[in-house]
Amino acid sequence: MSTKILITAGLLVAGLLWAVVSNRRTIAIKLYGPPTVDSVEAYGPLESDLTFDHSVLDRLLSEFVDDAGWVDYESLKDRQGELQTYIETLADAPFDDLGRNEKLALLINGYNAFTLELILEHYPVDSIQDIPTAQRWDDARWKLGGKLLSLSQIEHEQIRPKFKEPRVHFALVCAAIGCPPLRREAYVGSQLEEQLQSQTQYMHQHQTWFQLEPSASAVKLTQLYSWYGNDFEQSAGSVLKFVATCSVPLKREMDSGKNLGIDWLEYDWTLNSLSNRGAR
Fold first, then answer.
1. Sheet with 261-264, side-by-side order of all strands
2. Which of 97, 136, 262, 276 is buried most deeply by CB count within 10 Å?
3. Which SS3 state, helix, strand or coil, does residue 149 take?
4. Helical pair 100-122 and 80-90, crossing angle rounded to 10 deg
5. Distant-in-sequence contacts of 245-250, Cβ < 8 A, 24+ apart
């Protein structure tokens, strides 16, 4: 009897400790993580044949990014002028006249191009986090569609609240190994659905962002799901339900009735440079 009481007490204590840790994590995300937003589709299916020319960025990405998303910053530095030329075209992009997918492609490309420029300005650098905070995500220096915006504003004010599209978190690249891989091409409105789905599938097939062992009691996920959990919940009802749409093995486990927890993979802030290339 005493053994059963001890076991029960131990389980109760463990449960309480887990609740405390989980609650602290939730509080920390709310205090220090990205803002929680209500995602809606702010832009209807505008009938517009207007497109924006991303060919300069497309060419640079195809030359200086490999198939796994590693960036040759050293070589790209020699062509920084071309990147800056592309960035200059973003300043007066006709955002309001573009269709929904063209708008989103413009915002994603702008975010990624601005991040590349930020790294090149400080290169060589080991991590984007080595760049002074005031010059990093909250510096409203980037002009896009006639507006001066920070990287944070592009993501949290222009994209997340106005596009009910959680897959953008697999397309916005913060120049870290733990972030999504940079594509070797620019996003374009006519191919956006296929490009976002390709990014999503890639990340759920590589252990940097997704791990599921057959006998495991928990699935290991990128912390993007922790930071932006509300976005995925709004889309699919829960984080795991969303992930199950990206992973056949996970869907099979969940359909069988298995109750899986979530463990968060360590987020590697090391620069996503070709010189740091490793297994994904």
1. 210-211, 218-221, 261-264
2. 136
3. strand
4. 140
5. 246/200, 246/201, 246/203, 246/204, 246/210, 247/204, 247/210, 247/212, 249/212, 250/212, 250/219
Half-sphere exposure of 142 (CA within 13 A, CB side): 28
Amino acid, single-letter form, for residue 28: A
- Alpha helix (H) ranges present in the chain? 2-32, 55-64, 73-77, 80-90, 100-122, 151-153, 192-203, 224-227, 229-236, 239-244, 248-255
Task: Say how far residue 7 (Cα) sits from the centre of its chain.
Answer: 42
- Note down pLDDT in tens along the chain; length 280 residues: 455 554 454 445 444 443 443 444 444 444 458 999 999 999 987 678 899 999 999 999 999 999 999 999 999 999 999 999 999 999 999 999 999 999 999 999 999 999 999 999 999 999 999 999 999 999 999 999 999 999 999 999 999 999 999 999 999 999 999 999 999 999 999 999 999 999 999 999 999 999 999 889 999 999 999 999 999 999 999 999 999 999 999 999 999 999 999 999 999 999 999 999 999 9
